[in-house]
Design a protein that fits this description.
Layout lengths: L1 H20 L3 E5 L3 E3 L4 E7 L5 E4 L6 E16 L2 E14 L3 E5 L3 E4 L2 E4 L3 E6 L11 H8 E7 L10 E9 L4 E9 L6 E6 L7 E5 L2 E15 L3 E5 L3 E13 L5 E11 L3 E5 L16 E9 L3 E2 L5 E11 L15 E3 L3 E9 L2 E14 L3 E5 L2 E7 L4 E7 L2 E5 L49 H29 L1 H16 L1 H5 L4 H20 L8 H10 L4 H17 L6 H21 L1
Parallel strand pairs: 2-10, 22-30
Antiparallel strand pairs: 1-3, 3-6, 4-8, 5-6, 7-10, 8-9, 11-12, 12-16, 13-18, 14-16, 15-16, 17-20, 18-19, 21-23, 23-26, 24-26, 25-26, 27-30, 28-29
Helix pairs in contact: 4-9, 6-8, 6-9, 7-8, 8-9
Length: 589
């Protein structure tokens, strides 16, 4: 009986140890129901030490405001130890509805453990009490993200600029910030102007004194008339709010909170170019320009080369119209022109010159006229069209073959000439010969004979070996995926890989590579459409939601990283993520 009790006790102890050793990975939220204008806390907690390689869910339909932050709690009470490690996010919903935060994953002892999914109900905006001591309210009243547009009523093709400024009052401090969503310029040709240094300046906002910094500048050129919208720029901040209390030394104690803000949406009413007085040769040039056509030499010989330079210079939409073409006589051989652009971008717009250089080679002697060339443009400041006409250019070929006329006939008669004989005509004729026999060597049983005989037998095992290698490679699905990813990376990510280590140039090239990939696969210009539109197009092509989210996440990372410090390791990781997601999307497209 005593032995039986011992067995039962042992089994219970063993079962309790197994239960104690079981790993738990749980997800919890601070609230399951909230308004679309509220935030909540998401925590993923694991109870075992040694769990690593944490992978968060996609947070679809939510925006991560802060995180992940990590906390570890370990204790030893009455001989029993407990451990807990948590990964914490602060998130906010992007729209109303019922959504599920998917499972996070973590690795423990070689196994992948998943957390439980959590359902969230998002309602309409709720009224947040404006408590003057509420840190959120204080931040809202003292931080302002502003978009300043130079002209809200331009003509089509007329350049404007937008400057994004962050105003912060003297009462609070901003410790850190990052761009969570870059502005969209649908309907505009756009180019960013690099902000080389972040300089704090003094300025006024609503009549009050503020500090401000310039975050972003861009030149915009509208491509169509009507109402165009500049979408807001969204940012997240870590803000120090004064508590009203001081420390032992009299310094103000502050409380750090996470806060987000966005610039107001700007509507630009674009005017169409007038139809009255529009020249027939107008190709869309808008600005203030000068036009020249010049030859480097007007006198030359046949088969000598001359160059004719057709140049448009000034300020305006220099990259967005066609340069006039010259017409040459058929007797002048003309090569494809060399196009050159020397354009600088600033807040005043595009300034510089664009030109085509033609190389011509005359074939015959004579004088040739290159007809007059005209260039028309619209001047928005004077609100009228202007045309510049260049006089004809004369090319004088001084030496060379005469130009054949149509009335000339060619004399095809043969003129016979007398053959003149001399003493050297019949030299080196041999009068005597000698016959020598040459014995031919037998090929049979020679070294070459045996080598050629054995060659087919040597080819058989070599062919079998190569065939096995090919079959093994064809069956290596994982290896083929890697090779496919490498080929796609070399094709679309070549420019980005060259810029590894160069922070801003790398992310610009990476974003351009992703857009070029979609442009090649979807046959659309994706640089002018929003990320939501890109996601919609990929969904129509049958790409699954997880892959779409990964693709959009890489695009967003490109936007974020331009304004936040990154390391070479982070850039390499971003490159690998882009390579992987291009491979995934390519399977569907």
């Amino acid at each position: 009986m005593r032995l039986k009790k011992f067995y039962i006790l042992g089994i219970l102890v063993f079962a309790s140890q197994l239960l104690f050793a079981q790993i738990e990975f749980k997800a919890s939220v601070s609230k399951n129901k909230l308004g679309v204008n509220q935030r909540f806390r998401v925590e993923f907690a694991v109870n075992k030490q040694g769990a690593d390689n944490f992978e968060p869910p996609s947070f679809e339909n939510f925006r991560v405001v802060a995180g992940p932050s990590s906390s570890i709690n370990q204790s030893w009470i009455n001989g029993k130890s407990s451990f807990s490690q948590a990964y914490i996010y602060i998130v906010e919903p992007t729209r109303e509805g019922e959504y599920t935060i998917g499972s996070a994953k973590i690795e423990y002892e070689g196994k992948i453990i998943s957390s439980n999914p959590v359902k969230i109900t998002v309602t309409k905006e709720v009224e947040v009490p404006k408590d003057p001591n509420n840190p959120e309210y204080i931040a809202q009243q003292n931080i302002h993200l502003v978009a300043e547009v130079s002209n809200l009523s331009p003509y089509v093709g007329e350049g404007i600029y937008v400057v994004y400024k962050l105003f912060v009052s003297e009462n609070i401090s901003v410790n850190d910030w990052r761009v969570s969503e870059s502005p969209q310029y649908n309907g505009f040709w756009n180019q960013d102007i690099e902000v080389r240094e972040i300089e704090v300046k003094k300025g006024k906002y609503n009549g009050e004194d503020y500090r401000y910094i310039v975050l972003k500048k861009a030149v915009l050129i509208p491509q169509r008339d009507g109402k165009l919208t500049i979408e807001p720029m969204k940012m997240n901040f870590s803000v120090g709010i004064p508590t009203g209390n001081g420390d032992f030394f009299g310094n103000m104690i502050t409380r750090n909170i996470s806060y987000s803000a966005e610039s107001p949406t700007k509507d630009v009413n674009v005017k169409a170019l007038p139809e009255v007085g529009k020249p027939a040769d107008f190709t869309g040039a808008v600005g203030d320009f000068d036009f020249t056509v010049a030859a480097n030499k007007n006198e030359l010989k046949a088969n000598d080369a001359a160059q004719i330079d057709v140049k448009v210079s000034g300020s305006g939409n220099l990259k967005l119209f066609d340069i006039p073409k010259i017409v040459t006589p058929a007797e002048l051989e003309v090569y494809t022109p060399e196009h050159k652009e020397d354009v600088a971008t600033s807040l005043s717009g595009l300034r510089g010159s664009v030109s085509d250089t033609y190389t011509i080679v005359p074939q015959y002697k004579g004088k040739y006229k290159i007809p007059a060339v005209s260039f028309s443009y619209f001047n928005p400041s004077e609100e009228k069209y202007k045309t510049i006409t260049i006089e004809p250019i004369i090319v004088d070929v001084l030496e060379g073959k005469e130009l054949p006329s149509a009335g000339n006939t060619t004399d095809t008669s043969v003129v016979k000439q007398q053959v003149v004989a001399n003493d050297n005509n019949f030299r080196f004729i041999a009068l005597r010969t000698e016959f020598h026999t040459k014995q031919k060597k037998e090929f049979l049983h020679t070294t070459q004979f045996y080598l050629l005989l054995l060659l087919p037998f040597l080819a058989i095992p070599i062919g079998i070996f190569i065939g096995k290698k090919r079959a093994k490679r064809a069956g290596d699905i994982f290896g083929n995926k890697i090779r496919l990813a490498d080929r796609l990376a070399r094709k679309y990510l070549f420019a980005a890989k060259k810029q590894l280590g160069n922070h801003e140039a790398f992310y610009v090239a990476l974003e351009k590579a992703l857009h070029n990939f979609l442009k090649a696969k979807l046959f659309v210009e994706t640089s002018d459409i929003s990320k939501e539109k890109i996601a919609e197009m990929l969904e129509k092509k049958g790409v699954d939601a997880a892959t779409i989210n990964e693709f959009i996440a890489v695009l967003k990372d490109c936007d974020f990283a331009r304004y936040t410090p990154t390391t070479n390791v982070m850039m390499k990781q971003e490159y690998e993520k882009a390579k992987e997601v291009i491979t995934k999307v390519d399977k569907y497209l």
